[in-house]
Write a structure and sequence with these properties.
- The protein has helices at 7-12, 14-29, 42-48, 72-87, 99-110, 136-140, 157-167, 185-195, 207-211, 248-259, 265-278, 281-303, 329-338, 366-370, 378-393, 397-411, and strands spanning 31-32, 59-60, 63-64, 91-93, 116-120, 142-146, 171-174, 198-202, 224-228, 239-243, 307-308, 317-321, 341-342, 344-346, 360-364.
- The chain is of the alpha/beta class and 423 residues long.
- A hairpin with a 2-residue loop joins strand 2 and strand 3 (63-64).
- The chain has two domains: 47-278, Type I PLP-dependent aspartate aminotransferase-like (Major domain) (Aspartate Aminotransferase, domain 2, 3-Layer(aba) Sandwich); 289-411, Alpha-Beta Complex (Aspartate Aminotransferase, domain 1).
- Pathway: Amino-acid biosynthesis; glycine biosynthesis; glycine from L-serine: step 1/1; One-carbon metabolism; tetrahydrofolate interconversion.
């Protein structure tokens, strides 16, 4: 049953209630390895589903365009204070609706249309909003793209420096969406200073690891930091922009009124709850366990002959090139999903295949760590992945069905926040 319970939804709309229940069961029964997903606590769920969704609050605390903010202002101020305390930043804006709008706010705060912006190329692990051609950021600004080395799968900071000094971007992004290695924030900061650029750190994937001390922090190096509040941070689907005090006014003006109207107060409250949870000692243990699980899973996959981009991982994320396995990423991911192992197909650096049918798989350990799985379980997870990938190559559905049953049996012993099977 769902926790918190949803009896009113069940009574008012059985169709949607049934789909919610089915999704909860699906999340319970699958090894969820999508690197951008996690489980939130029942407290975060309750805040997200609260009456705060009824309230409009355009503006900022103490400077709203609607009356009736007596309770909303303290909630937003609490979220801001907790973000500042957790990450050690001078300023935090908790209003962005999601990660892409948060990144767009950085452009609006610091750039004019047509200005050069430098980011990791999307096929190399970067994000759409770091200047990729199909994004507004690649259409409205002049993209300058750095890559990873073909021989190491890692960013070469000397090459980044040479490119930055040649192209002189106004903004440099570090971070991305498929980066399995530690981001060298000090090196990026030095390059940005030399090039006269603003440095933006996109830590959407690793924010929880940064908060828990399992990854170095960009604070003190980056001028501005963006992050989603879900993924490894285990909050609701929202975002934050953090910065030095010097840039606080420009950031706030870019978020509102520059890009959006009223903040989603129910999300702001849930962000505040998640930030409080992330400040607890247990969260630091969680963040370090996420990394330990990823390293153990990567090692087990490598032992089975899997080609890992960059040779492994330093964080929660693993990127696999399946070229030597005789199957592409998409059919492998679909077979794994049927087998109860949820991840996503993904391009790998220098991928000769098309983005919608790439060579790779991307997986992460944030959600399975929340469920309580540890390093001892990672060899079994790797064995299941290997069995199903090999079965996908020969279209053997019997293996897929067997593994799905074994996965369900294992996960029955690991509680899921927000839902439990009806006794």
């Amino acid at each position: 049953m769902h926790e918190p319970a949803v009896p009113h939804l069940q009574a008012a709309d059985p169709e949607i209630a049934g789909l919610v229940e089915a999704e909860a069961r699906r999340q319970f029964e699958k090894i969820r390895l999508i690197a951008s997903e996690n489980y939130v606590s029942p407290a975060v769920l309750e805040a997200t589903g609260s009456v705060l969704t009824n309230k409009y609050s355009e503006g900022y605390a103490g400077k709203r365009y609607y009356e009736g903010q007596q309770n909303v202002d303290p909630i937003e101020l609490a979220a801001i204070g907790r973000a500042k305390g957790l990450f050690g930043v001078e300023h935090a804006n908790v209003q962005p609706y999601s990660g892409s709008p948060a990144n767009l706010a950085v452009y609006l705060a610091f750039l004019d249309p047509g200005d050069p912006v430098m980011g990791l190329s999307l096929p190399m692990g970067g994000h759409l909003t770091h200047g990729w051609s199909v994004s507004a950021t690649g259409k409205w600004f002049t993209p300058v793209r750095y890559e990873v080395r073909a021989d190491t799968g890692r960013v070469d900071m000397d090459e980044v420096r040479d490119l930055a000094l040649k192209e002189r971007p106004k903004l440099i992004w570090c971070g991305g969406t498929a980066v399995p290695r530690t981001i060298d924030f000090p090196a990026f900061a030095e390059i940005a200073r030399e090039a006269g650029a603003v440095l933006a750190a996109d830590i959407a994937h690793i924010a929880g690891l940064v908060a828990g001390g399992a990854h170095p922090s960009p604070v003190g190096h980056a001028d501005v930091i963006t992050t989603t509040t879900h993924k490894t941070l285990r909050g609701p689907r929202g975002a934050m922009v953090m910065s030095t005090a010097e840039h606080a006014k420009a950031v706030d003006k870019a978020v509102f009124p520059g890009l959006q109207g009223g903040p989603h107060n129910h999300t702001t409250a849930a962000i505040a709850v998640a930030l409080k949870e992330a400040a607890a000692p247990d969260f630091s243990r969680y963040a370090h366990q996420v990394v330990a699980n990823a390293k153990a899973l990567a090692a087990a996959l490598a032992e089975r002959g899997y080609d890992l981009v960059s040779g492994g991982t330093d964080n929660h994320l693993i990127l696999i090139d399946l070229t030597n396995k005789g199957v592409a990423g998409k059919p492998a991911a679909q077979a794994l999903d049927r087998a109860g192992i949820e991840l996503n197909y993904n391009a790998v650096p220098f991928d000769p295949r098309k983005p919608f049918d790439p060579s790779g798989l991307r997986l992460g350990t944030g959600a399975i760590t929340t469920r309580g799985l540890d390093e001892a379980r990672m060899p079994q997870v790797a064995a299941w992945i290997d069995e199903v990938v090999r079965a996908a190559a020969r279209a053997d559905e019997t293996v897929v069905e067997r593994v799905a049953g074994e996965v369900r049996e294992l996960l029955a012993g690991y509680p899921m926040p927000g839902w439990a099977p009806t006794p």
